[in-house]
Q: What sequence folds into this?
């Protein structure tokens, strides 16, 4: 399996605080990797390194064969466009990247937006402003914004955080559907062990900046590391 994303001996510090220490792992094309760990262990920093919002102090982060830190800013813009603009309706938020960054016709834009909004159950809310959406709806809207451009790699930072179990399960379903239909590589930071068990092909566990486990849920459950075993069994 070819690597869609790879970390090679990556370290990152903020002053005296070592957030990541010599971390290495690979994510295969079409694979779902869930990143687990206690708060402050570098999970979200890992995602920011992938899209070059941060650069590693040492080591390398690759997307395919390209080292992220050496890519031209225009090549990274696609991964960075995740925000919802409060002055635009949900429909307009999804249309923005398609009209600016693709050659789709207005009719094709309409079709793409309807597809993803129906997929996330928000087609009836397409003319609402983001500020009027509930927390769960905003999570689904953010996912729709990411999906509308049919990404090869989708990064999700705590996609079910703060959601009830039913809504969280719906988010899991959407991620699984995206992977099945488009062979999308998913990298998901989560505290939700039930979600990781359901959607993850592999999990990695970070603790005190170090990668302490990497494997299937069953393999991590048998890990020699007590912290990793406890996290996966919560």
A:
């Amino acid at each position: 399996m070819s690597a869609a994303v790879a970390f090679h001996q990556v370290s990152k510090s903020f002053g005296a605080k070592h957030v990541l220490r010599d971390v290495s792992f690979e994510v295969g094309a079409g694979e779902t990797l869930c990143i687990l760990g206690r708060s402050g262990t570098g999970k979200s920093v890992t995602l920011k390194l992938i899209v070059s919002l941060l650069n590693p102090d040492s080591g390398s982060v690759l997307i395919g064969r390209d080292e992220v830190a050496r890519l031209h800013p225009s090549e990274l813009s696609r991964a960075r466009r995740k925000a919802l603009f409060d002055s635009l309706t949900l429909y307009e938020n999804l249309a923005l990247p398609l009209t600016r960054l693709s050659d789709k016709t207005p009719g094709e834009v309409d079709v793409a937006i309807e597809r993803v909004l129906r997929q996330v159950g928000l087609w009836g809310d397409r003319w609402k402003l983001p500020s009027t959406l509930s927390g769960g709806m905003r999570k689904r809207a953010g996912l729709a914004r990411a999906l509308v451009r049919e990404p090869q790699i989708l990064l999700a930072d705590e996609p079910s955080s703060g959601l009830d179990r039913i809504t969280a399960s719906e988010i899991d379903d959407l991620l699984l559907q995206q992977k099945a239909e488009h062979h999308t590589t998913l990298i998901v930071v989560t505290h939700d062990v039930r979600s990781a068990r359901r959607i993850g092909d592999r999990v990695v566990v970070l603790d005190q900046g170090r990668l302490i486990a990497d494997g299937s849920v069953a393999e991590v459950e048998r890990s020699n590391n007590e912290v990793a075993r406890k996290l996966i069994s919560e």
